[in-house]
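Long-time lurker. I teach an intro course on protein structure, and each term I like to show students one example going from raw sequence to a predicted 3D structure in token notation. This year I'd like something fresh instead of my usual example. Would anyone be willing to generate the tokens for the chain below so I can use it in lecture? Attribution to the forum is fine with me.
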Amino acid sequence: MTTKARLELFLKEVSHHLHNELIPFWMTHGEDKEYGGFLTYLDRNGNPTGETLKTLICQTRMIYTASSAHRAGLGGGYFLDSARQGVEFLIKHFWDHEFGGWIWTTERDGTPVNQSKIGYGQSFGIYCLSEYARASNDPRGLEWALKTYQVLQTEAADNYAGGYYEFLERDWAKKRPGVYGGDRKSYDVHMHLMEAFTNLYAATGNPRHKERTLEVIRILFDRVMHPEFGTGIAQFSLDWKPLRAILFKDVWGADRDVDDEEGRPMNNTSFGHNVEFAWLFLLAVEVLGLDIAPYKERLRKIFDHCVTYGIDWNKGGVFCEGPHDGPARERNKEFWQQSECLTGLMDAYLLFGDEKYLDAYENVHRFVMDVMINHEVGEWWPLFDENNNLIWDHMAHAWKINYHTVRSMILTEARLKKALARL
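-- Reply from a regular --
Happy to contribute to a lecture. Here you go:
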């Protein structure tokens, strides 16, 4: 099959899924019609499970997705209205008017439950509200994005060692060490801060926001990426010494635990996060007007690591985690890694023009289309084992809604069109 024919087939399948399955699913599921905001626990058929806790991460990610879908011309106005009501619920119930910042969880009606200030959630506050500002003429978008940005800079920036504190009490005091996270910084949060600051700069054009984005980019390349292999190290002490990655009380609650109570091995990296970082950085390059040349070989290392060790060349898809320098160790296949690798591997193909990236894209594309998507319902299954046996079957959860899937399909469709236009 010619390259043109391959790309046309990929585009046809991505577009069909986006427009005829995924978008219709989210136009009919998720909104809380009684209290406002979003219900985010849905069973394998897309029906509410009865779990009604509302998390900051789900509310903000749903606002982001609705706003970005509207910006992409999807939904005929539905998604702008959906984002607006989500923003209203968020401001009314999640903002802490005494100490500033967004609290972590509420009951369905907005009654506070966990009032911690988690850096992960603050980053998505900036991300979703700046996206809402870009999608609408509503001044509340930028107003609250900037409020979040300012309180983060004031209360959570580490002006000594660089970066940001991530696990804080309601009053912004650092949490206890260990599983409470008060003594840790992470790849994940700083990657998402790059994502959020990039989007804020796209919305404001303020040079201060560009400089803060550049500061986070420098930390990611200089501190977070492995000095030899170029792949990401998951967790660090506050002064950026690498640590074995552990699960935290307030975050990553749906993540897969490890048998060793000391955490994951030191020699360990996430294929999904690495490729997600690479394409998010390429977006930052575009938005900030940077020169890509000094970074190209560093990005090539990231993409090549995933192609060599992360792709299941036998049964399809992307494994979860493995060493910086060897085959995958955690070989389950989770929905979000597939989402991010579709976008990222197409970016690798567009950047380098090497067919191996298109082959890797095709591998993940086929796995997603043939295995990962619950086509009858319209959303993606959450998790398979290495033999493609379904492990979890919910359509939405505190850590699985539409941020990865819808974003991936919108961006992958655009990249496939770009690749075809180059032929």
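Some talking points for your students: The longest strand covers residues 112-114. The chain has two domains: 1-30+271-423, 32-266.
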